[in-house]
Write a structure and sequence with these properties.
about 120 residues; alpha/beta; Rossmann fold; 6 helices; globular
């Protein structure tokens, strides 16, 4: 079940689809099977899901990548996880191919200890 978000935030999210498409277009040369990607400000988890499909294709034997989503708002992290589970990406979360955590994206990639704590 997708949980509703406040109306003011929903309006901002309408433009995110265009921003996501533009970012993906520019990143596409770097998004290959087996790659690791950091999504800072992961919000709803939409971009994490798209990135996961690019770096972890469903073809047998294809290299599996990893997507790390970071957001500083704990409620968004939980919402993101629920959205990913609701869209059949629960196994990727369980297997660590998608990781969504609360944190400061300005710090870059997370240390192993913070991954263990927030997973």
């Amino acid at each position: 079940m997708v949980r509703p978000i406040p109306q003011a935030r929903a309006w901002r999210n309408l433009t995110r689809g265009i921003q996501h498409a533009h970012a993906l277009e520019n990143l596409l040369p770097f998004l290959h099977p087996g790659a690791t990607v950091l999504d800072v400000g992961s919000g709803s988890g939409y971009l994490c899901a798209v990135l996961h499909n690019l770096v972890s294709p469903s073809q047998p034997g294809a290299p599996q990548g990893k997507v790390v989503g970071v957001d500083h708002i704990p409620e968004l992290v939980e919402w993101s996880k629920c959205n990913l589970i609701d869209n059949d990406l629960g196994p990727a979360l369980d297997e660590g191919r998608i990781l969504v955590v609360t944190g400061d994206g300005r710090e870059g990639r997370l240390s192993p200890s913070s991954r263990d704590r927030d997973n």
